[in-house]
Write a structure and sequence with these properties.
Blueprint (H helix, E strand, L loop, with lengths): L2 H26 L5 H8 L3 H29 L1 H21 L3 H29 L3 H33 L3 H4 L1 H15 L3 E2 L8 H24 L4 H23 L13 H31 L4 H7 L1 H21 L2 H18 L12 H24 L6 H39 L9 H9 L15 H37 L24 E2 L6
Antiparallel strand pairs: 1-2
Helix pairs in contact: 1-5, 1-6, 1-8, 3-4, 3-5, 3-9, 3-16, 4-5, 4-8, 5-6, 6-12, 6-13, 9-10, 9-16, 11-12, 11-15, 11-16, 11-18, 13-14, 13-15, 14-15, 14-18, 15-16, 16-17, 16-18
Length: 530
């Protein structure tokens, strides 16, 4: 290959890595900014949940559709369109003056991410045709992309402390514009030889069903589990998701072929991936709030204190693939989930005044466990289907992880709100408050999660409010951590029973040449091609 060809391939690698880096960075960078957003925008705990979930929800339900649109209309076109939407939405996030406008801009960000993410790997694989070169390029792409997820809390903390929460979105503008300019110059258009149809009814039903379910779970924070709104949303979600399954069964080209669920390995691996997403992002939502609002650290200090999780994932992730290749999926996945579950359960013993020396090793257990489990679970999902459908399995595993994250933030947030409200009520029971004000005081103190309300509560000093809110919030967090830990251990038991002990078949490690789902088997667009 000529020097010019090598330089062009390196440029394609740079563009695709930068695009995927931004997608994963915005999954985690927002976490350390949540307390500042809460203070500046006056957001409740429910508002913070939606700031996180609106992005992840849009990304989750549109990922599979994004891949189908790219196959049909051109991957370069969709990648660049998604990148443009993502970059513009980042600017809208930074300019948001209220919680509602920020939630809407985050949802638009997620839609852009769902467009650019599927195309990044396909475009990269099209540029590197030799198997050895492609493997190296994809390994580098995965490493740099994973760095975006891991670096989010630390980078976010530094930006928030230096410039404010808006900076975590503004940092996307120069990176997005640079990537867009480079992409226009170096990317070649490609399409799949066999173009999948767009399952519009499936997309609409999945979006409505998962969105309504998420709204119902988060709304329980405000109105309670027995309210008409909450029960109506949960009931409607059940109907919509059932209609989605019926539509998939009848569709000629469904976004989620139901025949895949006939394979045990597919079911077990996707259930485990859903559980990992639930525990990973669902608990990450609260780490920065605990370190900042309860223990009083800066945003950067909170990011530093989550480094044991990042280090565990980065150190154990590469080893997990080698363990799976030698011993099969069961060993690394089961050991990883047991480690993560144990770490989360032990985090349930942390108190507001706990020294960091008693906390870091618990976070490290979580990171080590996730590092051991994530890669083999994705490989198991791909190995569970015929080679020609490996691209689809990769997409469904990614969607499962994002849906788990949506449910984790919603469910664990509901647990925290309910437990904190009960804890505050118990602590106010023995205090001498004006008649009829106890319920109002409980609602006021519980509305902001770990943030003490700016308006004083009659009958309580500022110091008393901080103590009550901090202790009740920490107690609620421990319940959420223990819940996530139990989920992880349950998934570990499922993995031990359902995953194979044998080494994964090499034939299913990558899409077969010429398959409709193989990202590297692209048809260049040119004259005469539709």
């Amino acid at each position: 290959m000529s020097d010019a060809g090598r330089r062009k391939r390196a440029a394609v690698l740079t563009v695709t890595c930068l695009g995927q880096f931004m997608v994963l960075l915005d999954n985690s960078i927002v976490m350390t900014a949540l307390p500042d957003m809460q203070r500046d925008l006056g957001a409740s705990l429910t508002g913070l949940q939606w700031i996180v979930d609106s992005y992840v929800l849009a990304l989750a339900v549109l990922l599979l559709t994004g891949g189908a649109i790219g196959d049909r209309h051109g991957r370069k076109r969709l990648f660049l369109a998604g990148l443009a939407v993502f970059t513009c939405a980042s600017l809208l996030c930074a300019l948001a003056g209220g919680t509602g406008s920020l939630i809407a801009a985050r949802a638009l960000q997620g839609a852009g991410a769902a467009a650019l993410s599927p195309g990044s790997l396909s475009l990269l694989a099209s540029a590197y045709t030799a198997p050895r070169d492609r493997a190296r390029a994809i390994g580098l792409w995965a490493g740099i992309s994973g760095l975006g997820l891991s670096a989010g809390p630390l980078l976010g903390g530094a930006l928030v402390d230096a410039f404010g929460w808006q900076a975590i979105f503004l940092v996307n503008l120069p990176v997005g514009l640079l990537t867009l300019v480079l992409g226009l110059r170096v990317l070649d258009e490609s399409r799949a030889p066999r173009r999948r149809g767009l399952d519009l009814p499936g997309v609409l039903l999945a979006t409505a069903g998962v969105g309504t379910l998420t709204f119902g779970l988060i709304n329980a924070n405000e109105d309670g589990w027995g309210s008409a709104t909450t029960t109506g949303c949960l009931g409607s979600a059940a109907v919509l998701l059932a209609a989605f399954l019926v539509a998939q069964a009848r569709s000629r080209e469904p976004m989620l072929p139901l025949g895949l669920f006939g394979e045990r390995l597919f079911n077990v691996s996707h259930a485990a991936i859903l559980g990992v997403g639930f525990g990973l992002l669902g608990t990450t939502f609260f780490y920065s709030q605990f370190f900042q609002l309860v223990q009083g650290h800066s945003a950067f200090g909170a990011g530093l204190r989550t480094l044991p999780i990042t280090a565990g994932i980065l150190v154990c992730g590469p080893a997990a693939g080698r363990l799976a290749a030698r011993f099969g999926f069961r060993l690394p996945v089961t050991c990883g989930l047991v480690s993560a579950g144990t770490g989360l359960i032990t985090l349930g013993a942390v108190q507001a005044d706990s020294a960091y020396g008693t906390v870091w090793w618990r976070l490290a257990l979580v990171g080590v466990g996730l590092g051991l489990a994530l890669s083999p679970l994705t490989a198991a999902a791909v190995a569970s289907v015929p080679p020609e459908r490996s691209g689809l399995a990769s997409g469904t595993s990614n969607t499962s992880r994002q849906l788990g994250a949506v449910l984790g933030v919603a469910v664990l947030g509901a647990i925290v709100h309910a437990r904190q409200t009960d804890g505050i009520a118990d602590r106010l029971a023995g205090r001498d408050l004006p008649p009829g004000s106890r319920a109002a005081a409980t609602d006021a103190l519980a509305s902001g999660g770990g943030l003490v309300p700016t308006e004083s509560v009659p009958g309580l000093s500022a110091a008393a409010q901080r103590l009550i809110v901090g202790d009740a919030f920490t107690e609620a967090l421990t319940a959420a951590f223990r819940t996530a830990g139990v989920v992880m251990l349950a998934i570990a038991a499922l993995a031990a029973l359902g995953l194979s002990r044998s080494a994964p078949p090499e034939a299913r490690a990558a899409p077969a040449p010429g398959s409709p789902d193989a990202p590297h088997e692209a048809t260049p667009a040119g004259p005469g091609r539709p």
